Fold:
Amino acid sequence: MIKLYQFPVSHYCEKVRWALDFKGLKYQKINLVPGPHVRKLLQMASKSQVPVLEDGKDIIQGSAEIIDYLESKYPERSLTPKDPALAEQAKVWEERLDLIAGPAVRTFNYHFLLPFPRAIVPLLTAKQSMIVSMMFYVGYRKLSNTLRGWMNINETSAHKAMNDMDELLNELRQIYANTRYLVGDEFTRADLTACALFAPLFRPNGYGLKWPTDVEEPAEMKYWKASHERALQSLAIRYEQNR
Structure:
């Protein structure tokens, strides 16, 4: 059986989960603990990053690479247009979103929510034991500082992330106001990537997480999200329709 090594909270992992589900493939989720995951993944692949897909003897790392693999080995219900020009457009969108939206959403969310362990710990330890969760709470101050240093999360990087997302979300809003899909006339890996990577901002039920509800978002975070309500709503609608 296909195995997906993942963090449930990861939007790049959600991208792969969605692709697997879209194709109707059976797979097993291997939920890793952030931190100890490094040793496990470096035994399998060249980097310590999720997602990693194991399919028999094949090991594939990275969401775009995994979708390429799935499209080649399991071509049913393709996410890549048959027309070469449209296929190229879809991959250009995917690459742009992977490089800009993915890191920006992560930086934005962690910058504003890291001060609240009740928001972050349940996300990082989703699907893990109570013991793991308690260990994260006990060591939270060190964990928070480590995450900020490792991912370069600070006020400057957060505002850069907001500027990067401003441009992308304004463009997506304009496109989705006039057409149902980013490329061609069918749902593709471009739409899947946009919806999956921005999903932590609109928190859909289909993501498979219990989103924090007992922590009020900081005012600046709420204001910025409200300024992009139309774009996020367009993404949420397409998420619900296709997920």
Observations:
- The mean pLDDT is 97.
